[in-house]
Each structure stands twice: as structure tokens, then as C-alpha cells.
């Protein structure tokens, strides 16, 4: 804790100068990292989330905090994380990547309950990853408190996409042709040759039936979240559910 307080001292000092401070912190790793067991373990998403968040809020001496989260199908989240491990140069089978995780039992509701139990947290704001383009303006206004932010439009195409199935399958050939290339750079070259943007389908290590089952659980989880006290769920107009099978981004 002393190290965290030392690093956050300038921010605390700046907040102390404001009569009505409003602080917006955004970092995808606040609750955990992008691979198990930090991302998921057993039946929990981000098992260390409340401890990490509590440490940050205590260091900043914050109260009345709203935690904002973009959710997605837990199975899709795992598939995405697996793809990005490959992009980081870690060749790993999906079953090894999710070892110790029970994907069918992962629920966002369980995580949100833990976050609401953190000292300093009074509200959780949620939206679904797949709804972001339609909700970008509303999200920006909610986060910043600036009415003009509602005019923001969402980035429809993902800024960072995972490898296509063809790209993953091509890595061995590319490395055989270029022995000096490590896995990371060979995959990068394969992704340039077979990009998702050109229509090559994503690498999908999960059966369609498992995708469909996960979507059903995800929708039920979302409905349960909408009924929770202390939680606000933003939903795109005219859209009540997601129907796409999990893929990589």
C-alpha cells in the first residue's frame, strides 16, 4: 500500500484543489489481467477484482465511486484472451489456456456483487460490448458528466482484432520458410496475409453448440443484472439480446 500511495500522491493533491472533483480512471487491467487465473478462475470472473479495486480506492481516498464495465459473453472473452496470447507470442492450446476455469459457470452478476461490496463503491454502470457503437454517446455522457459528449459516435470496427483461423494455421509454414522468425512475428506476418478484415473467419476453438449455450446464459445473466439494486444497465434502443456466436477481437 505505501508504494501505491506514493505513486498516487500527485493525483490526490490535484483532487484536493478542486471544490467538486470528478475523476475518471480508465484501464482494462484495473480489475485483472487478460489471462487466467487473473481473468478467470473456477467459477469467477476476475477473482482478485475486489482486492485490486479496494487497494486503488484506498490509495486515492475515494468514496461514492461508480464502477463502469463493458461486459461480453464470458466464453467470447476467453476466446478473445486466448487469441491475444498468441499475438503476444505465447502459443497455447485453448484447453490449456482455460485450465482451472469453468466457463459455463462464469456470471457477471457474481462479479458485480463483489464490486458493490467494496468500500467506497456505491454504484455500478454496465453496458454490453456488442452494444457499444449504439451507446457510445450515452456512455461518454455518463462517464464524463458533459452533456456534449452525448454526440460522440462509436468506433464500429474493433481497433485490435485477433488472428484468423487461416493465420494461425499458417504460422508453422511461415516459420519453416523463415527460421529466424519467432512465433510472435510469424503470426504477425500471417495476420497480414490472412486478415480478419478481408473476410477470413476468426480462429474459433469452441463448438457452435457451446457458443449458443453460452449466449443463452449471458442473456439470462444480463436480465439478472438489470434487476439488481445499485446497478444501471445501458441497453441499445430496440435491442434486448445478442445473437452472435463468440469470436475474437
**Which residues sit in consecutive blocks of at least 5 with pLDDT less than 50?**
none
Q: Please state how the strands of the largest beta sheet are arranged side by side.
A: 3-4-5
How many helix segments? 9
Mean pLDDT: 91
E-strand count = 5
SSE order, as H and E?
A: HEEHEHHHEHHHHE
- What about the largest sheet? 3 strands, parallel
Structural classification: mainly alpha
- How large is the share of residues in beta strands? 5-15%
How many angstroms separate the termini? 34 Å
- Specify the helix fraction band: 40-55%
- Write down the overall geometry: globular
Kindly provide the radius of gyration, computed on alpha-carbon positions and rounded to a whole number of angstroms: 20 Å
Notable characteristics:
mainly alpha
Describe the structure.
The protein is mainly alpha-helical. The protein has a domain at 64-156 and 215-236. Helices cover 44% and strands 9% of the residues. It has a three-stranded parallel sheet with strand order 3-4-5. Strands 1-2 form a two-stranded antiparallel sheet. β1 and β2 form a beta hairpin.
